[in-house]
């Protein structure tokens, strides 16, 4: 008897440790069960149930779709679940990808060889680069403890390399208190805020865990599995747009830090790297603001986007820097109920769907694009500055996403190849100035569906929930 892994377009969660899955036939879970049938019905190309289908409806649907006996299906799990919002006024389906173990996989694959949704599953197990046979004399250094720094340190620790992490901000619990000090009392700690500290800026930005970047080797799976191991909900492994939520994420980040330390790593907070040690054009270590020197030829710079003083230091030390595209814009809000109705139709408010999101893009005739970014369903607009006398805003959502409003950034891309060298240098140095000048506090509101109005007022000190982002020039948001 053979055991196989198969997957359908009906949803799927990977069993921990499994290294393969088979993509099985397209299976829609939508509509209403036919009469005299409690769970599902099958046609040659699909099986349907309701959005509110019971958990035990999946097994009969899989069996019928594959055309096998029930005892031939040894096990199954959900790998991915999404929904088709195009059918918001009809029978909206859940679309699943399922991992299955079946008897005689070879015969099943041969019988369904003409079905493009059936085939051997890719190997999605993470492959470690290597394992240290003995600790290095020079321990690797990771500068910054945001998402990049956390996972760099974690992978190094799992390889037995005992990394040293240097983070200028504070640990996440104290950082949370300092951030609330800004929001509630207008007290800013430049070293511990929405931008700086354990977890990075994303800790206070909804905890979104998806990307539009292609991931053919499934490295993102490793990220999700580590989050679940650290206490994130299991559902992030299979929902189409997973998120943890701001305040759940703080606990996950703290647990991951302890995991790094348990593997021999060291995490040091309130330690800012002020200089590099360079001999014969080779990096030999780093210098801390306190004057302490740490020797190592292995340094990961996971700086984030707000460490402008560090970037200037790197530029002054002759480290090669390459301009990258960035975007500037403003943040808009609208009632979440409006977005739910527009996106989900009659299914607005359905508990299995939650708060709806959206994505907008406009390609202008001049070659630039304007698009939505960091859309936060059922979220809040928050002050996110890291420096005195400057204004930056961000959006975030809790795990429940049950706040009254939705919000999103509306931004335009700034690309190096469309900008002169002088303008790029000006942009680099003026990004901080943009957030320092008197700026426009803008909020987009809906008068009726499809129409938007914007109001603005000049304000140097907006309230904690200011509805503006980095200004592109004096008196404009951007």
Describe the structure concisely for a colleague.
The chain is of the alpha+beta class. Helices cover 21% and strands 25% of the residues.
Task: Write the SSE topology.
Elements: E1 7-9, E2 23-26, E3 28-29, E4 41-42, E5 47-48, H1 58-66, E6 73-83, E7 94-102, H2 105-111, E8 141-143, H3 147-158, E9 164-167, H4 172-185, H5 219-229, H6 246-262, E10 266-269, E11 273-279, E12 282-288, E13 293-295, E14 299-301, H7 308-316, E15 326-335, H8 336-344, E16 361-363, E17 369-383, E18 393-396, E19 405-414, H9 421-434, E20 439-440, E21 443-448, E22 451-455, E23 458-459
Parallel strand pairs: 1-2, 8-9, 8-14, 9-10
Antiparallel strand pairs: 3-7, 4-5, 6-7, 11-12, 12-13, 15-19, 16-17, 17-18, 17-19, 20-23, 21-22
Helix pairs in contact: 3-6
